[in-house]
């Protein structure tokens, strides 16, 4: 069983992630063989497993913990992430995810909804069998609520050509940064690290998550479909206006409105024209600079952690995410 090539440089964490992946694949086995196979193929298709990896890395800064329980906790975080992706694809009517047909494209929206809901139950089952701490379960429930509220905030901003950078930051804080923040914090909490390290981990995770989502949105305007392993420009066509577009509209709002008013009826040529307008108005360059600032804050936080191999991995991986192509 393989994991993403990102982890080949770090054999210890690579092995932990292989074990985490085994837990994930075992946890989704149900009587419906088609759904089981679809989920297992999805897991095998090359997700980076960033959230479980950050959890596992931060769990090394405290007391020795049970590997079995750590792998189950790590798996629960990725299962929650996958559940949100499946529901995202339903809302966006997305045909692809990780170079595979999305669950809803293969089986229809009804099955996809039930599959996402099923994964939420798997998430809580893995959590409940990994800890007896009511505080940990409470934290997970609160984190899940913030993630879903972030998704609802995003829906409320659909097709809003007056969206501000502040509103964008608010919804990606819930949609993406929350789970990174929680993965880092939960890892430190799971290992009973000092309160200082737990709070430092939380801030690091927030900054990593913000940078990650901004770069994801930048890549949507810079990459090809094969690079991204999902349709490009999909967010814009569905009315989700992200940072490169928002920043470009700040400079030349009127140039974009005629295109955005067409919503899903934008042609391929018009999409390319919008892409060119964003570049001309420095949307991509300015968004990348903001992602870099969040990354720098994350790295500054990592440098405050005790010196060890895990800290070196955190520094290397976090810097690498800013340079990724998908």
Strand content: under 5%
In angstroms, what separates the terminal alpha carbons?
22 Å
Q: Write out the strand line-up for the largest beta sheet, numbering strands in chain order.
A: 1-2
CA radius of gyration: 20 Å
Shape, principal axes of CA atoms: globular
Poorly predicted residue ranges: none
Secondary-structure content class: mainly alpha
Strand elements, count: 2
Percent range of helical residues: over 70%
Q: Indicate the mean pLDDT.
A: 91
Major sheet details: 2 strands, antiparallel
> What pattern of helices and strands is seen along the backbone?
HHHHEEHHHHHHHHHHH
**With helices defined by DSSP (H or I, 4 residues minimum), what is the helix count?**
15
Plain-language structure description:
The protein is mostly helical and 326 residues long. 73% of the residues lie in helices and 1% in strands. The chain contains 15 helices and two strands. A two-stranded antiparallel ribbon has the order 1-2.
Topology:
Blueprint: H1 11-27, H2 33-44, H3 50-58, H4 67-92, E1 96-97, E2 100-101, H5 103-107, H6 109-128, H7 134-156, H8 165-190, H9 195-222, H10 225-228, H11 234-237, H12 243-260, H13 268-280, H14 283-302, H15 309-321
Antiparallel strand pairs: 1-2
């Amino acid at each position: 069983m393989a994991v993403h090539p990102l982890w080949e440089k770090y054999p210890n964490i690579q092995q932990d992630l292989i074990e985490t992946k085994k837990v994930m694949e075992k946890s989704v086995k149900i009587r419906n063989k088609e759904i089981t196979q679809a989920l297992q193929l999805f897991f095998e298709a090359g997700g980076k497993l960033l959230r479980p990896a950050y959890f596992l890395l931060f769990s090394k800064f405290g007391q020795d913990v049970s590997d079995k329980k750590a792998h189950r906790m790590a798996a629960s975080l990725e299962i929650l992430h996958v559940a949100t992706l499946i529901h995202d694809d339903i809302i966006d009517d997305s045909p692809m995810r990780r170079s595979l047909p999305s669950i809803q494209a293969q089986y229809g929206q009804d099955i996809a909804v039930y599959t996402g809901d099923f994964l939420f139950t798997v998430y809580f089952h893995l959590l409940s069998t990994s800890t007896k701490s009511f505080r940990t379960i409470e934290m997970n429930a609160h984190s899940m609520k913030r993630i879903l509220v972030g998704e609802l905030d995003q829906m409320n901003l659909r097709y809003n050509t007056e969206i501000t950078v502040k509103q964008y930051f608010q919804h990606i804080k819930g949609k993406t940064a929350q789970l990174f923040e929680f993965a880092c914090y939960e890892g430190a909490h799971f290992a009973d690290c000092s309160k200082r390290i737990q709070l430092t981990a939380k801030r690091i995770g927030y900054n990593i998550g913000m940078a990650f989502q901004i770069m994801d949105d930048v890549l949507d305007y810079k990459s090809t479909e094969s690079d991204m392993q999902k349709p490009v420009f999909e967010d814009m066509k569905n009315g989700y206006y992200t940072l490169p577009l928002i920043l470009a509209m700040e400079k030349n709002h009127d140039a974009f409105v005629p295109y955005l008013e067409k919503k899903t009826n934008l042609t391929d040529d018009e999409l390319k024209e919008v892409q060119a307008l964003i570049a001309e108005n420095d949307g991509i360059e300015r968004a990348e600079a903001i992602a870099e600032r969040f990354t720098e804050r994350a790295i500054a936080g990592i440098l405050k952690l005790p010196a060890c191999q895990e800290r070196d991995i955190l520094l290397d991986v976090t810097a690498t995410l800013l340079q990724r192509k998908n």
